User: Which sequence fits this backbone?
């Protein structure tokens, strides 16, 4: 287990070639020849120091494609369960860093298959309490795989009943609060300003404002058709706080003879809407900047037939 502890690339490569990381992840076929070896190493891994070494070795090879390609042949739940198992108990800070890094790469590679296989029980019983106990680099390393899981709506919806059954809803909320605090402190230290909650990881603003769950919940096309049925032809419709145009463009399609005026305070949202209007040829969409708490006059002194606000 100490083959990779020299932290040299040669030692890490040798460990990977020997298949030790894959063995640790349970990616091995049972055989009579390996039965005694497996039993002996499994006994060794009962010791905390051995599990710490395993975490660090997995962290060293976490970004090697050969490890992920081989692990892909095995059940993703078993692979993730094995990786999280090394973080049980009281791992050292170095072990938490290595284990967190390994788990992050495992979740990122073949994410569509592996993330749904991540056990809510493993997250609740191992990762959450360990994250709450650790600090500094170890806490940040554990935050990354937790962020991947908890930022995924489908995974959280599937895991939430387990969290509630264990009476841990408040604890999970505390984890989210602490993760957000870490992200903010890191952003302030590196960029001098707090992160934009509407654009996690600098993703396009539309990824948040026009996410699938928002479209399904708000039904902008149906809302636009319903409102258009009662409006006279022509005139102006005001979309206040339009974001990236979630309602603006369905309204423009439902009311082609009307002027749809989108008011927004964010420059990135304004740029996104103007680009979309050009791209889609939405000639009846006008995007205007508004100040905090003050709406500008409409073009030509027009009066709005409808003012729409969606919180």
Assistant:
């Amino acid at each position: 287990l100490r083959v990779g502890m020299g932290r040299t690339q040669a030692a890490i490569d040798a460990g990977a070639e020997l298949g030790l990381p894959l063995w640790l992840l349970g990616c091995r076929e049972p055989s009579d020849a390996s039965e005694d070896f497996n039993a002996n190493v499994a006994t060794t891994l009962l010791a905390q120091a051995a599990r710490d070494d395993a975490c660090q070795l997995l962290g060293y090879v976490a970004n090697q494609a050969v490890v992920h390609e081989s692990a892909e042949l095995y059940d993703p739940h078993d692979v993730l369960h094995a990786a999280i198992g090394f973080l049980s108990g009281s791992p050292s800070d170095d072990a938490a860093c290595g284990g967190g890094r390994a788990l992050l790469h495992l979740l990122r590679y073949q994410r569509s298959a592996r993330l749904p296989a991540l056990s809510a029980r493993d997250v609740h019983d191992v990762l959450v309490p360990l994250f709450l106990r650790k600090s500094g680099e170890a806490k940040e390393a554990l935050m990354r795989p937790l962020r991947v899981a908890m930022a995924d709506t489908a995974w959280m919806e599937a895991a939430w009943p387990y969290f509630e059954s264990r009476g841990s809803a408040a604890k999970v909320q505390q984890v989210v609060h602490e993760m957000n605090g870490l992200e903010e402190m890191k952003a302030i230290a590196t960029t001098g300003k707090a992160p934009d909650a509407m654009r996690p990881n600098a993703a396009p603003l539309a990824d948040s404002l026009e996410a699938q769950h928002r479209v399904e919940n708000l039904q902008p096309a149906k809302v636009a058709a319903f409102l258009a049925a009662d409006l006279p032809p022509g005139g102006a419709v005001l979309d206040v706080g339009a974001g990236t145009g979630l309602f603006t463009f369905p309204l423009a399609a439902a009311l082609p003879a009307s002027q749809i005026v989108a008011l927004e305070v964010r420059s990135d949202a304004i740029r996104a809407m103007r680009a979309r209007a050009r791209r889609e040829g939405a000639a009846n969409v006008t995007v205007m900047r508004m100040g905090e708490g003050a709406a500008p006059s409409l073009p030509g002194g027009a009066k709005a037939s409808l003012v729409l606000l969606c919180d």
Remarks:
- Strands lie at 236-240, 259-264, 285-289, 304-309.
- The chain has 17 helices and four strands.
- The two ends are 55 Å apart (CA to CA).
